[in-house]
Amino acid sequence: MSALLTLDGVSRSFGGLRAVDNVSLEIAPGEIVGLIGPNGAGKSTLINVVSGVHPATAGRVVFDGRDITRAKPHAIARGGVARTFQVVQPFPNMTVRENIAAGGAFAGRIASLKQAMQEAGELAAGVGLGDLVDQPANTLTLARRKRLELAKSLAMKPKLLFLDEVNAGLNPAEIDDALALIRRIAEQGVTIVLVEHLMKVVVGISERIVVLQNGALIADDTPEAVLNNQKVIEAYLGKKYAAALSAEGGGP
Amino acid sequence: MTIQKVILAALGAAALSFATMGSAAAADGVIKVGAPLPLTGPLSPEGLKQKQGYDIWAETVNAKGGIKAGGDTYKVEIVYVDYASNTPKAVQSADRLISQDKVNFLFSPFGSGAAKAAGGVSEKYGIPTIAATASSEAVYNQGYKYLFGTFTPNRTLTEPLADIVLGKKPGLKRVAILSRNDLFPTALAKEMAKSAEKRGLDIVMSEKYAIGTMDHSSTVTQLKASNPEWVFATGYINDLILIRKQMKDLGVGAEVVTMIAGPAYQEFIDASGPLAENITSSAWWHPAVRYKGDDVFGTTENFNKLFEAKYGAAADYVQASAAAAGVILQLAIEAAGTVEPAKVRDAIAALDTTTFYGPIKFGDTGQITSLEPPTFQIQGSKPMVVYPDGIKQADINFGVK
Amino acid sequence: MRDWLILGVGTLLFGLLALSGDTYLLRLGTMLAMYAVLAMSWNFIGGMTGYPSFATAAFFGLGAYTSAILQAAQMPMAVGWAAAGLVAGGFALLIGLPILRLKGHYFAIASLSIGEILREVVNTSEEITGGGMGMNLPLLRLPPEVQAQAFYLCMLGLAVLTTAVAILVHHGRLGFAFRCIEQNEDAATVLGVDTRTFKTAAFGLSAVFSGVAGAIYGNWVHYIEPLDVFDIMHSVKPLVMVLLGGLGTLFGPIFGAIVFLALEEAVWRNFLGVHAAVLGVLIVAMVLFLPRGLATSFEQIARRFRGKAA
Amino acid sequence: MIYLQILANGLALGGLYACIAVGFSLVWGVLNVINLLHGSMIVLGSYIALFAYTTFGIHPFLTVPIAGGIVFALTYALQRGIINRVIAAPVLMTLTLTFGLDLIFNNAMLTAFKADYRKLILENPLGSWSFSGVTLPVDRIAAMALAMLLTLMLFRLLKDSRIGRAIVAVRMDRDAAALMGVDVMKINAITFGIGGFMAGAAGCLLSIIFPISPLNSTVYLGKSFVVCVLGGLGSVPGAIVGGLALGIIESFGAFFLGPEHAVTLAFSLLIVFLIVRPTGLLGKKGYE
């Protein structure tokens, strides 16, 4: 089975800084992949590279058999790559319904605006915002905004969905709800890349975990293998502490 | 919220007051003359001058009891509208003055362009209109019957200049022409080029500068390189003050430096100080001319005296021409014995008289033909007439450093 | 549906005004229609899409000159008007591609400069445009009242057309995209909105009708000159009208145009020499106290009253 | 030789342009407000210099702190009283507001001073310097030198003083500056005032060079725009580089293309720079 997304030696520099450094990676259809790494490891930049916001300065990105390295963000979105933002970005003065409908009307290729609005209502109900469809987005709480963000992405009918820290700022109960929602989405056949800096959240749900540090890929394995990977532990805890930990023979 | 209410109320009141305004009927015994003028915006200095001319005429007439037509006597009222130096607004103002304020006659807006544009309106309504500041022949050759102008064509400025300069310096050959890229200045520059070519002069440089030019140093540097004997520069007063200063700064001189239209104004002399010395210019009128007229002012001296008493400065050609426009209207109304527009129009066309401004007679197109514009030179910080010989105050000097 | 009804009734009411033979009233009506066209046009890019454009004067002047040049070459008036819209629209698409990459003040200045450049180009292309001498348009050999009625109806027709297009856009995909861009352009992009194309479309829409308005205006006043048709006030006034009426609303611009014209006329008549300052005071007051426009403020006040009554 | 003269003309002109634009650039860069009043403030400075010279015989160069101070007070008050109320509003609002204020202000000057062009004529003209065929007017050189001195002082003020550091902090990150205890509203007003001071000072220096009239304000404003974009926003050295560049370009442009194209050239350059190099010649990152 061929990969849905292939990154081949992808780099992205800002001035002298290499935010993403020679990353090669394949994601198969239907997978749930966790993308983790400490703050500033280049996770969000990698998403920006794939979604075309900051195109790669070197390497190749192939999605669904097409080279999208230089494609425009909106074209990539219409091709089936959706993403949520780490800092949620709703259209503040538009209603929940309109926010979601935008994803359907433009990337989801729904020809009729009416149809898009209707489907938006269903999606809103699906993420638990059914009562709030006619509220302006800027009146929602953070947790609800995150769900709105999710619903917007779903309206795009994506093949591949990047979820950038959808759980940040949520309390444990809200996180559990969110994870359940993500599972349901995955069951519908959407490939998911879950970006987190908290390892705990991704371990339970991911089939595979990819670890970035300083822009470079340092691990790509099953959750268990990654948890025991010395380099990963070092990346998270610092060399000294990691060495002490492994001397005690314990694991995180 | 209360502030919002207050503002809304104010806006509403303003809109209402607007709706109920206008339609003031012409009172008996008053002749209303509409005068759209550029009282704000780039042309406002000219507009304000024109207003002074109209005002002094109206005041003088009213002080003497008004205009007599047939058995009736009329006071004069001038209805001003500021069109903010915006030509279409001038056209609209003219329309409004005629159709809404019911003026009996109209004075054209400033300059050839606006006078031409507004000419269509007065023609439409058949309202006699006098243009005090439009010289371009294109204004008058449109077949309009109701438009009359007090300026002779532009070539009547350049021709006498060329005559007197070459009369005194037959060997002079090299002319440089510099003009502001604007209606009157470019038209005048073209006439100058014609006058020069006709006399076999070499035009060693001919450049236009953009409206709003802040610096002429490149042009003046080129001017220096072309080594002219006669520099002919047109523009508005600010351009000419700056050009003159930069010529001095960069050490450019010539036998003759002519500037139009700045030097006719006292502001040019004040603002240029010693640099104004020996600058030559032409204008349609000059306070040094001496005419004995049949009008309300009588003589040129009397007009000058009244003007100085009222405004504390000598009149220039714009102010005089504006006052002359009033005088012409008055003479025509008195000759026609009525304020009926068509009859007054015929009376204007038939005028053949002399006023403080000079002899008045209009050609077939409505443009005045009887004036002989004087040429003058700034000498000892004063404009001195050097041509024509009849009113000459001084001989032309050569050499501007 | 409601919007079409409003347009229909409005058209009928304003159409009746044409029966009046009062040339002054018709002149005001023509100005009003022209202001409405310019304000509606600006609303496409400035209100709906949120790009502070100062290019209205550029499109207006370009339209006026396109039409005047064609008519000077003996083309019929209608051809001149149609060409004006096409040229202005095409020019906007062309220039929009590069400058719509800019945002905020940068875009504002770039759009402003276009008018300045066009004015100077027209000023220096003397052979074609007459330069600073301006251009005369053919006079119609019709009685003044009939002319006034004809130009009023033409300008009103253009205003109705502009409004109809605005209604379609407002309720359609295009307007939806404009609003997404106005709200958050980056977010819109990753939702699949082709922002460049839509922005350019908004800019083009704002140009087409402004261009035709310039062309009709030229014939109406039968004399145009660069200083006038490229006057920066043609860029600023529509913006003030839209702000007055409510940014991004559908009928706000028309409402704003009516109020603005009434104020302008009242101020202009009653404050000789200081009308610019009075207009300035109004603008300042509006920005400080009515930032969301009259229509929105009326609504708010009405809601308050209803709230109190209940 | 003529090229050397054109270059000298351009440099002298460019110095004046820098002097016109530096205050405007500061306000734009720090407050993110395009101050459309700037041109009128320069004109006000010129009138103050004119009256100081004709009434009291004070040399325009000595009037610089007086005119600067008066315009500082005025602009400080305007910012405190009016502009601060909408400082966080969208670009359109602040632009429209300063446009309205300028209509009021310019009309007031027109009423008070009339539109007539006046000129400050020094009793002892400064004359020109001439060496190896190149002539330079001394008044321009002196004005330019004074302008550079003022600009340098502004530069030091921003770098070394407490207020200067607060201004720079606000420019970098308004919210962070507020969290650090900077009174942002006050700094806004002071910045606006400093912009006004520079405008008033520029007006003084220009009074001996250009005719004076309220109608000049739009020309000064237009030049400020171009200089800012050329040099890069909010950067003091940027205004100098942008000013000199514009002066030289206009000078040679007028020579090669003809003076009627000088204005077109400046604005075309502005658009090209906005699109191709929005950070200006110096490449400093602007503040949107």
The strand count of chain D comes to: 2
Strand content of chain D: under 5%
Strand order in space, largest sheet of chain A: 6-7-8-3-9-10
Uncertain runs of chain A with pLDDT below 50, 5 residues or more? none
As residue ranges, the low-confidence spans of chain D are none
Identify the overall geometry of chain A: globular
Number of strands of chain A: 10
Order of helices and strands of chain A: EEEHEEHEHHHEHEHEEHHH
Most strands sheet of chain A: 6 strands, mixed
Q: Termini of chain D, distance in Å? A: 43 Å
Structural class of chain D: mainly alpha
In helices, the fraction of residues of chain A equals 25-40%
What do the pLDDT scores of chain A average to?
85
**CATH C-level category of chain D:** Mainly Alpha
Question: Measured on Cα atoms, how large is the radius of gyration of chain A?
Answer: 19 Å
- C-alpha end-to-end distance of chain A: 34 Å
Largest beta sheet: strand ordering of chain D: 1-2
Task: Give a quick set of tags describing it.
heterotetramer, A: 252 residues, alpha/beta, 6-stranded mixed beta sheet, 24% strand, globular, B: 401 residues, Rossmann fold, 7-stranded mixed beta sheet
Please describe what this structure looks like.
The complex is a heterotetramer of chains A (252), B (401), C (310) and D (288). In chain A, the strands form 2 sheets. Chain A has a 6-stranded mixed β-sheet with strand order 6-7-8-3-9-10, sandwiched between helices. A 4-stranded antiparallel β-sheet of chain A has the order 2-1-4-5, with helices on one face. Chain A has a domain of 67 residues. With 252 residues, chain A is of the alpha/beta class. Chain A is 40% helix and 24% strand. The radius of gyration of chain A is 19 Å and the shape is globular. Chain B has 401 residues and is α/β, with parallel strands linked by helices. Chain D is mainly alpha-helical and 288 residues long. Chain D has a two-stranded antiparallel ribbon. The longest helix of chain D is centred in the N-terminal third of the chain and has 30 residues. Chains in contact: A-C, B-C, B-D, C-D. Chains B and C meet through helix 1, strand 3, helix 3, helix 4 and helix 7 of B and helix 2, helix 5, helix 13, helix 14 and helix 15 of C.
